[in-house]
Structure prediction request, 228 residues.
Amino acid sequence: MSMKPEEYLQAQSFAPPSSGPATALNNAEQAFINKYVGADVARALEADRHDPAQALPLPAAMPATESSVEEAPCEPSLLECLKKAPSIQMVAFYLDAQIYLIPTMAVSEVLRYMPPVLLPMAPDFVAGVINLRGKVTPLLYLENLLTTPRTERSENRFIIICNYKGLQVGLIFDKVHTMYTFNQDQIMWDVESRIGASAEYICGLVDVNQSILGVVSVDMILDKVLHD
Prediction:
């Protein structure tokens, strides 16, 4: 009998992820701290370190017709790396009833929601920040960037942890849908001319069973966090 993705996740026996000592802040982390985090928040973070024992395994990927490239961090542009890959594995997830995609090349793990320390001076798309295994980790409301901000939010949600340009960021979403592997010729890049201003955080489109799904631009979201 087939299971829904959330049932699949709940049925797993989770192994604790590796946990290393805290390290000195890199340039991206220091830039975020300088921009949004005051002394009071920094003290709260130090006392509120998260070392989650249950990182969630993702559903198995659909078979690809070509082998996927090795999913390693790449600089300077994630989008450039994606465009060069013969095939790309992506996590499909829900925001309300809409499905979006994030390349697993940018994903380190998926976690259940954990409450962040609030940042009073941060923009509305920043939920707050957590200390995840000694790493400063902003949590972002994806709906504020991709759809419509909510007045009420459930804590029965999940977080995709992404690492890019030295900053670890958590993207809050409703639930996992499935995993896909797409060949390069299935993805439409540079979609600004197709969907206009709403493409700011969408870097590509994919037709999945006659539904057009947007590929979330981790590059653009991280640039907004660090530079806006």
Q: What stands out?
A: The chain has one domain: 24-227. The CA atoms of residues 3 and 87 lie 27 Å apart. The helical segments are 5-10, 27-36, 39-47, 78-84, 142-146, 192-195, 218-227. The chain has a mean pLDDT of 77.
